[in-house]
Amino acid sequence: MSQKTCPTGNIKSFRDKSERITAITCFPACLNSLTKNIFKMKKVLLLVILTTAFAFSCTREEIKTDLIDFEELVTGAEGYWNGSGGEGGFYSGNAYFVNHYNAGYDSWSGFAYSNHTDTETGDYTNQYSSIAGTGADLSENYGVYFFFGAADTLVFTVEEKIKNIALCNSTYAYKVMQNGNDFAKKFGGTDGTDPDWFKLTLTALDIDNNKLGLAEIYLADFRSENSAEDYIANSWQNIDLSIFGFIKTLVFEMSSSDTGDWGMNNPAYVCLDNIEGELIR
Q1: Which of 70, 74, 213, 261 is the most exposed place for a label (fewest CB within 10 A)?
Q2: What is the spatial distance between Cα 11 and Cα 4, in angstroms, rounded to a whole number?
Q3: Regarding predicted confidence, which is higher, 84 or 53?
């Protein structure tokens, strides 16, 4: 992943299980300029005036933020929206979520939203439930993403620095990975030693479609030599993407170790909620 660097900041790397997370700490440019001025100025009174002016300019600027939590969306009597009206997508907060609906097969891919709470049914009839039984922070509504072999996009109206996106396995995906079915294997195999994995890849693009970087989030991971570290995620996890800076488009794509000639065998769903960010000025 190409890293965005700050000329006056620190870069620290640390490991969390199998993933590398890079944290960047940057100092405000206005404070950097102030430091240079302090070394140049000789008069104490002028230094005091400059310090006050720069401090005021740093603290006065208001940061505009956005929260996408899907709560304003109407799910209707069925408790979900899957694009059956042919809309092609939907807006929530500062973003547009792409949806593809096929009326001939009564099927969909891309993004939907839901308020379903079924944590038991592990088959195709339960496409719209998170394994946590709610949205993030016990909310009602949340988004659902279904990958059907081609990447889909979340496009921000105004470029946004994403400080949090909450992700959770769907009940359908979780149960099939846990138990297997006629099409997909039980993750870990019969003895639990198969190095299976299921991940979501998020690729961040700027306004000119240049790649800012990507994040790989493992929703299930059995690759460790220590079986005690194997997991299928069953709760909402918060992911910080602010390292990429201001994003115009976020590309969603899923992959799995359980893949055949026709693509992934395990259900390619993930739930999302509470996308929080800072809007570009």
Answers
A1: 261
A2: 10
A3: 84
